[in-house]
């Protein structure tokens, strides 16, 4: 609630609405976040007819293998960050 009283943190608080008259608690955003809490979404450009949702999620969970291989290759080459 410090943000509402005028203290300005480095990052904008998630549920504080700023107007010309001051700051207030954004109840709409808070309730939306509560409804979505615990849900996880996956976005892909693969049509549902080509790959079912379970296959998409399974493929996403295997992504760490690709990332680990890339990390090992990058360290072998001593590649610098881009």
TrEMBL record:
It comes from the Bacteria. This is IS1634 family transposase. It comes from Streptococcus anginosus.
């Amino acid at each position: 609630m410090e943000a509402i009283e005028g203290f300005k943190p480095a990052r904008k608080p998630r549920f504080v609405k700023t107007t010309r008259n001051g700051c207030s608690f954004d109840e709409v955003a808070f309730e939306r976040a509560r409804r979505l809490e615990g849900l996880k979404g996956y976005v892909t450009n693969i049509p549902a007819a080509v790959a079912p949702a379970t296959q998409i999620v399974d493929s996403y969970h295997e992504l760490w293998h690709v990332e680990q291989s890339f990390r090992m290759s990058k360290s072998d080459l001593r590649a610098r960050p881009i």
